[in-house]
Amino acid sequence: MIAGAGPTGLMLAAELRLAGAEVTLVDRLAARSGESRAGGLHPRTLEVLDQRGVVERFLAEGRPVQAGHFSALRLDFSKLDTRFGYTLLLMQADVERLLEQWVAELGVQVRWSTPVTGFRQHADGIDVETGDATIRAQYLVGCDGGRSAVRKLAGIGFPGTDATMTALLADVELDDPPAEWVFGERREHGDFAVIGFGPDWYRLVVNQYDFVADRTAPTSFDEVRAAMLRVAGTDYGMRDPRWVSRFNDTARQAERYRDGRVLLAGDAAHIHFPAGGQGLNTGVQDAVNLGWKLGAVLAGRAPESLLDTYQTERYPVAARVLRNTMAQTALSRPGPHTDALRAEFAGLIDLEPVNQALAGMISGLDIRYPTDDPHPLAGRRVPDFDLGDTRVFSLLHQAKPIEVKFEDGELEAVGVRPDGHVAWVSPRVASPQRAG
């Protein structure tokens, strides 16, 4: 059973269905809100979707742009070793719609208006209470956001740092839009961005430092306009808001990702400032890591201890995201001391090795899971190299492990996990004739 039908929950449902598991997917909301905090898919997430044979659905509706950045300092994704060297601009609402269509094809429908209100774990299952019904499952995965009911009911701590600033967001029409995107413009009282998402609407984000708004108070369009005028000196003629919201730089991570038959993924396991657009992408990749493992355990193909590797592998990834988003927030603060730090950092980020190291981190392409295999490929994502008339990623569409054998070169065979990471590498051993 999966609680939360956002990108993480939907991706996990798909992974579990591909693994042969029966899935119940519930959400406390009555229906989708249509709101979109996230607005883009990173290279590794696009690779994951390609591994499942559905990436073309997303490419058809998104717009590829060179929008990778670290605290609004540009990163060059085009030089990364991937077929997707860019950010795909695609609103979260559209990502959810496309994922929901896919999981429906796999046989899963979202049960709306179904909040998780309690559960009882047993040796052979878990009884999940959903208000007026109790559902029996083998496992419960909380993909229900930063205020996760599942995490709270499990008594899992959520330590971290409190907010130090407030960000306001508005999707609007502009009478006087800037000629080009305003991408992280820093001013005396904060910074702001103006991003065009369509022919007649824009996303405005304005950050105010050393001010934390009451998160329970509603966000108003006039509040966003006033903040833009104060920070940017103009509101660009903003009108007809589609959506307004606020968020902050609170950073927290669950003390553990598993408690018996309860697991956490996505924002339920980690929250942070959305610097670099890493939140949705990290959650989807959580789901792909957990999905094949949970599917294998449910099918009896693997021992339950395999689930412990989910935290071993994914906890450090999210911890790094929290660190780098906190660093990006620090680099964006107004003031002469930050100006000096930013100038020095900008010089470093212009160096290609630094730029590519940060691009690999933000894009998710540099992740290497811990492994006993000393080969440099072990634990890393497998490159999508061509294999005659097919590709490696094409062989992963059914979320099954594969073994790729080579007739020549330094490698003899590579074992690839269902999530596209290298499980083991068998280097070619020179024969006596070759050695001679």
UniProtKB/TrEMBL annotation:
Cofactor (UniProt): FAD
Gene3D superfamilies, alphabetized: 3.30.70.2450, FAD/NAD(P)-binding domain
Annotated InterPro entries: FAD-bd (IPR002938), FAD/NAD-bd_sf (IPR036188), RIFMO-like (IPR050641)
Keywords, sorted A to Z: FAD, Flavoprotein
FAD-binding domain location: 2-325
Domain of life: Bacteria
Pfam families found in the cross-reference section: FAD_binding_3 (PF01494)
GO molecular-function term, one example from the UniProt record: FAD binding
Protein name, as recorded: FAD-binding domain-containing protein
Annotated organism of origin: Amycolatopsis albispora
Taxonomic lineage: Bacteria, Bacillati, Actinomycetota, Actinomycetes, Pseudonocardiales
